[in-house]
Design goal:
Elements: H1 2-15, H2 28-56, H3 60-86, H4 103-131, H5 135-163, E1 173-177, E2 183-185, E3 202-206
Antiparallel strand pairs: 1-2, 1-3
Helix pairs in contact: 2-3, 2-4, 3-5, 4-5
Domain Ferritin-like diiron: 23-166
Signal peptide: 1-23
Protein name: Rubrerythrin
């Protein structure tokens, strides 16, 4: 219903001869959303592949972490896609490219990716969206930014567990908020700590 309403509203605005500010898709925020969509779509596919590799190497609990993060990245990509569509901008066609190595190297790769998103990418994207006053982009970027900080820590803990032969002590259950992608190691709270979505709307992944 909301999608239909947005389409009708856009058609009405165009009929009156007005062009939405972001329809041309040439603002920095739109470019940021397109880059973020590409990045999150790639991360979704990459972490799924890393999960498969971890299973092959006998690291079921590390595989579970990669699966939970992959699910979260898919949610982020979906949010960025929805924002682009609402702004009347093009959604990129993504053909993910990445290398799959051993689980230890895959964890290092994941940590590097999350570190870049937390330290550089999303802070800059949030500044651009704030400057251009694009609230829907700010919301989508913030959901991903807050979640990636947690992913970075989860991957760092996993690598530490692997290096110290303590993988069996890792969580065997994760919950992912279907609205913002917030990822909990173990049972999450009654409501998401990022977007306040009720726990019953979380997806649970477990061994």
């Amino acid at each position: 219903m909301k999608k239909e309403f947005s389409s009708l509203l856009l058609a009405f605005v165009l009929m009156l001869g007005f062009t939405p500010v972001f329809a041309a898709g040439n603002t920095q925020t739109v470019k940021d959303l397109q880059d973020a969509f590409t990045g999150e779509s790639t991360a979704h596919a990459k972490y799924a592949a890393f999960a498969k590799k971890a299973k092959e190497e006998g690291y079921a609990k590390i595989a579970l972490l990669f699966e939970a993060a992959s699910r979260a990245e898919k949610i982020h990509a979906g949010n960025h896609q929805a924002a682009l569509k609402q702004l009347g901008a093009d959604v990129p066609v993504v053909n993910p490219e990445f290398d799959v190595k051993g689980t230890r190297d895959n964890l290092k790769d994941a940590i590097a990716g999350e570190s870049y998103e937390v330290a550089t990418m999303y802070p800059n994207f949030l500044k651009d969206a704030s400057k251009e006053k694009v609230n829907i982009a700010m919301m989508s970027f913030n959901y991903a930014f807050q979640t990636e900080k947690k992913h970075k820590e989860l991957y760092e803990n996993a690598l530490n567990s692997l290096d110290n032969n303590q993988v069996n002590s890792m969580p065997s259950l994760y919950q992912v908020c279907l609205v913002c992608g917030n990822t909990y190691a173990g049972q999450g709270p009654a409501r998401c700590g990022i977007c306040m979505t009720p726990n019953e709307k979380f997806v649970t992944l477990k061994l």
